[in-house]
Amino acid sequence: MIRLTLTIPGTALRAGLRALLEADPAFQVIYAGPQPGELARADVWLVTDSFSPEEIRREIVTTQADVALLVLGDNAQAVQNYQNLPVRAWGVLPAEATIEALTAAIQALEAGLIVIYPDWITLPRARQVALVGEVEKLVEPLTERETEVLQWLAQGLSNKQIAARLHISEHTVKFHVSSVYGKLGATNRAEAVRVGAQQGLVVL
Questions:
Q1: What CATH superfamily classification does 2-122 receive?
Q2: Cα-atom radius of gyration of the chain, to the nearest Å?
Q3: How many Cβ atoms from other residues are within 10 Å of residue 28's Cβ?
Q4: pTM over 0.70
Q5: 123-204: what fold?
Q6: DSSP secondary-structure letter at 136?
Q7: Residue 120: its pLDDT value, please?
Q8: Helices then strands, each counted (H, E), the chain
Q9: How many whole angstroms from its chain centre is CA 118?
């Protein structure tokens, strides 16, 4: 039996989803609420994309949970946002996914597979490779801001231009660039972009 914890803000959606999943003898819903709970006891965590990757990472680290993650989102951006979290397996499905799709996804995640809504796999080859797990993950993943900076580096923007786009100081951009170099093992922009593309962090 697969133990599930549901973090769904909407009361009606949460209750309906819980009822549907509990009707399947393969699943046991050990917690359902608007905030995370019982992560340490769960096999699979269902959460909506109203929770940021940073919030999810913090909960996993704090509870030392060894879970698979299924994010219910609204678009393909969820694929890019949640793939580098410290979980056993991860998946993203649209919030309106059928119960059949949800149950299949949960079972696949429990088996250690990656689950992605087919219509959302419309990304460049570098990104697709990362999604199917063929590229090794970084020892220390980039933060969301560092990933943004790396993407702008790939577009050829200067530090000053990146600062203007992100509404931060040029000094802060330099700090993020330095951190990106360190995490990617790069010594210059071209190398950082190349490694980032190999890791699926950059859409070229």
A1: Response regulator (3.40.50.2300)
A2: 18
A3: 14
A4: no
A5: Arc Repressor Mutant, subunit A (1.10.10)
A6: P
A7: 66
A8: 9, 6
A9: 16
